[in-house]
Amino acid sequence: MEITEEQRKRAEASRLAALAKRKVAQERHPCTDFKVRKLESTSAELPLVPRKLGADRPGHVLRPHLPQKFRVTLQICSPDSFCVTPEAVKGFPFPGEPECFRRLNQLLPTVIPSHFTQVDEGGKACVYKLEEYDSVLRCLKKSEQVEFEEIPWGTYNAVERMSHSHISGEWIPCRPEHLPDVKVDELISTLPKTLLDYLLPFQLEGIKFGLRRGGRCLIADDMGLGKTLQAVAIAYCFMKEGSILVVCPAILRFSWAEELERWFPCLPTDIHLVFGHHNNPACLTRRPKVVVISYKMLHHLHKSMLEQEWAVLIVDESHHLRCSKKKNEPKEIRSLLDVASKVKRVVLLSGTPSLSRPFDIFNQIDLLWPGLLGKNKYEFAKTYCAVKSVLDVQGKTFQDFTGGKRLDELNVLLKQTVMIRRLKEHVLVQLPPKRRQIIRLLLSKSDIASAFACSNVGDDEASTNATNDGYESQIADATNVYPGALVEMSYQQRGIAKLSGFCQWMSLHPIIVEADNAEISDIHTGSRKMIIFAHHHKVLDGVERFISEKGVSFVRIDGTTLARDRQASVISFQSSPEVKVAIIGVEAGGFGIDLTSAQDVVFLELPITANSMLQAEDRAHRRGQTKGVNIYIFCAKDTLDESHWQRLNRSLQRVSSTTNGKYDSVKEIEVERISTLEASTKFYNFGDKIIENQSCHEQVGGERDDLSTCLPSDSLQAEEPAFEVGHSLDQLEAQSDTVLASPEVVCIPKKKCTTSEFEIENDVSENIRGQGSNSDTTCGRASEEREAIWPVSTARHTSALDQQHEPNENCSFDVHCLRFEVSRYTGRIHLYLCNAGTDSRPRPLFENFRPDEVEALGSAENCSQKIGGRFIKENPGYRSAIVAFINDWNNLRPVKRKKLFGKPLQLPLTAELCYLEESTNHTADGLLKGQSKRRKTPIDEVSCPLPSDAIWKKVRLCNGYKSKEKEYTQGWSSMDEPLCKLCQRPCRNCNAKTPEYFEDLFCNLHCYDEYRVRTSNRSLRQELFQLEHGVCTSCQLDCHNLVKRLKPLSLSRRRDYIKQHAPRVASRKKLLEKLIKDPNEGHAWHADHIIPVYRGGGECQLDNMRTLCVACHYDVTAAQRRERRVMKNEAKKKLETIVNNFKNDQESERTNSCLKEQQLRENILEEELFIQVAGSAYSNDTAVGATSFDLKNTIIDPSK
After folding, report:
1. Do residues 773 and 194 make contact, with C-beta atoms less than 8 angstroms apart?
2. What is the side-by-side order of every strand in the sheet holding 124-129?
3. CA-closest candidate to residue 296, choices 559, 566, 583
């Protein structure tokens, strides 16, 4: 069938149109995918075109025969004013903005607008005073041609009531919980002087904001501005009302303990951290002042936490309370909301209250001021979130809550009522700049193939494959990458595919250069540090593998890192110059921690939300940072990374409008440079060899032949123009000369590089005030028992401390009067005073410090000029005693230290250990009394005998959070009281009669720990690990850290790593092969009995246990085998001697018995043959009489 000429022309026209469209798409510059900051242009270059509202809306049909009609939106724009914005009405012609304002003036003859303003949509709005709102509303209701949307009543009522304080300039309480300024000043005056001296002016203003609102506020300051310190000060003001509950992510529990001990004038026992249900504060005999718990543990202990009364609740990183579209919130969030509903003072902390949408903030605000945003979350979403129905790919309709409207009004409402927010650029102008650079990676086929292959297997299988030396070569040869694979790559696959390009970029970083060149490393020590963020464990493993192979010291924090290891990693990264890199999971460590020692931040994977990225990068860019922070964002070209980046920018604009307001809202993420890095198929280590098959060029300055433009730089002038998102290519090229001429871009030739080529002097701004002094003492309490507290007059105690801190060369009290207590959570040393004859108990001085702070003071001879210091640790007269205590404490085993926690101590510590009460069943050395040669105690023998009047009952409960129910037996007395499963004494805890967990079957934690240790070798090993952390007590090898470092390495690299860091283990072939094949804790270290079981060391406590690496354990076991062999031989010889002696004794006895029997027979025969004759001289009369008597009564046998 032939086509007509007309059809041919239409086909040709369609073909030409398609070619033109393809040409335009091919000419599209990569910069359009990643926006950069615009250059400021004049109005002459870009004339403003008036916007016709409603004309460009899809589906908008104008009907000329209908009258012109418009609608106005009334919304609050400042604490004392509101604006009226005209908008088009669907289906009606829009008269235009000038006409709308003219008609409004006719409708409102008695109300004069104060001024005009521009709204976010681009139109204009007239502004009126808030006091004229009722008049404007009445006039609009009379008009039929003007539709209007009024201000929500709850919003208007709250802002109108709070506006009186704004207008008068003085704080006017308007709710029952609000406090007047007189009371606020009184509370602030009770704060310790050290804390007041350390606070910056804006922090003091934040404290006043919270106190004025009765301790119910949201402190939403930018990251790094000291929100924790403000919350601690607010909580201290209400500490007399009761206990304080701090809810935070699990990684921040030790950080909170550090801050509380540093600033709170309290004892270490006043702070309690919850790590499991065995740490339930309801089971403690003495209630602590502060309880720190994680979100998850609060959910597990929901029932008991609700039964207790709390004076203040602090919720750190409160954006975890994000709102769900479902009717019921998740269980963890619901548990926190239930506890908060019963607390009078609630302080929320978050630098990003809303992570990705305004809808997320509802739970937080409704918690502080119920009903402020509406009756429920759906009413709030209808008012401020622009809810709409969306059709998904499966044809199902769902409600979309990601939008936002009336955001300026929402921001004014929050700031006037419960939220205070300050930005770093407003209050910390001295803070160095933060510079972002996008590195676009051109993925190769091998990268894509490896990503698909790695993601298709499980974690265990992937780990096994990663250890196979031939696995990487197998992936590199893969070429079966189908078209469209780039677009279909998942979030994790994109991260894995970017590893190769990242390694190429990282190989030229000064950190790696210093590690590869020992000479440079010796000259330039501690030059730079870097934080690398990623989301998936497989990506983190790949980064760790590369960093480890380069020999660079690093720390890693992810979801599997133990709580104490996380805190230790942060301290090590901050203080140790050898640790150069921190590898961190963005969800596990992207918030709440201080990593200001880093200068470079890398995002290998884009975070899920924009605020998550801002939170993570501000781990380095915060108060205390003295250098500019370079941020490198890796994005894979032509993948979903590009659309993900655009989505992050869109969500950031909505969220920042809610929290920052109209003028400070962030339109998009500012980026100063975009570079493209093409991943090479073949990659050599940096050194004498040249990196081949790679190219890196900068989009703003043309192509370059090396990786230099992607590398970090240190200096950027403040006046240097930055690139704005959405700039045209011509404008970017116009600035390219300026940017390339700046000292930030360093060109490196293709030769062996040195660190000096990368080093540029930093434009270091004025130093920010660093860490302050330790907490001063304002009030004191001592204890009724040695650990408990007894009240002391505040004025008397303060004056006494003032005398102690007076500058004086002589000690104000005897050195021997000092007592010390070490915190079990932070290791801080708290000081006490006990004067002989006057103090019956040690009196707390409320001064504490870290041991490294004392070491920093130098020797006693060098401290002579510091005698006038305010603190005892700065006085050389006391410093010798403090140093002696630190040395004595460090020489103790962790098991011994555990026994001394919670007690004021004096030197020597060996005497303190002698004063401890001995266990009922064990000696001071942890041995079972009477000794035992069994490794563990049978279940039926571990408990004490059941009282005669008690009976056994069966109890069903869970032994863990996700474990199934198990059946246990427990004794119950005749008084219907449950008895402890170990000691058979009555249980008095709150869950005794209705136990939920296995711990509830015991009277206290000591019985629970002893039961577990004696009946389970696994529990014994776990408890030992909690104390010694897998460090060998003989050779000091950190076996736990060794296992962590080995897991991501290949087999060959594992062998080299063990030979380098654990040579003793490497010398044992069988042990080495086990550890290489399966690196786990059991193949690295063992729990060893100090006094072995065969000597009676069985069924022992932790005092008789120690951690030994497999090599030391092998040597100890071999020595014990030899000893047992000698003992066995000696015992065998003794046994043989005994047996021989016994045999000889038996033979001699047999011979003697035979002789005796023979002699007896002979005697009997002689007696039978002998005849006595009466009257014979051989016998007397008696004998004859007796014989005759016997003969008469004897019957003679005829046979004889």
Report:
1. yes
2. 115-118, 124-129, 81-88, 70-78, 146-149
3. 559
Q: Which two tokens stand for residue 761?
A: 């002097």
> To which residue do tokens 């990684």 refer?
251
Q: Which of 100, 126, 151 is the last residue of a domain?
A: 151
Q: Is 47 within a domain?
A: no
Residues 935-993: pLDDT tens digits?
777 777 778 888 888 888 888 886 655 557 788 888 888 888 888 888 888 887 777 78
Q: Are strands 579-585 and 530-534 parallel, antiparallel or unpaired?
A: parallel
Residue 441 has, within 13 A of its CA and on its CB side, a CA count of 32
CB 319 within 8 A of CB 353: yes
8 Å CB contact between 68 and 92: yes
CATH code of residue 118: 3.30.70
Does residue 589 contact residue 565 with C-beta atoms inside 8 Å?
Answer: no
- In terms of domains, do 893 and 930 share one? no
Quote the Cα angle for 905-906-910, to 5°.
Answer: 90
Q: What is the pLDDT of residues 726-779, one digit of tens each?
A: 333 233 333 333 332 233 323 333 333 333 333 333 333 333 333 333 333 333
If one counts every other C-beta atom within 10 angstroms of the C-beta of residue 878, the result is 21
Residues 907 and 966 grouped into a single domain: no
φ, ψ for residue 36 (rounded to 5)?
-130, 165
1186 lies in a domain? no
Closest CA relative to residue 73, chosen from 82, 65, 62, 81: 82
What are the contacts of 170-173 at 24+ separation with CB within 8 A? 171/212, 173/212
Kindly give, in sequence order, each residue whose CB lies less than 8 Å from that of residue 644, ignoring residues fewer than 6 positions away.
606
DSSP state of 319: G
Predicted TM-score (pTM) above 0.90: no
Q: Using alpha carbons, list the distances in angstroms from residue 888 to 826, 859, 881, 882, 910.
A: 18, 17, 10, 10, 9
**Rg of the chain over all Cα atoms, to the nearest angstrom:** 41
CA distance 916 to 923: 11
pLDDT, tens digit (0-9, with 9 covering 90-100), for 25-55: 655 544 444 444 443 433 333 333 344 444 4
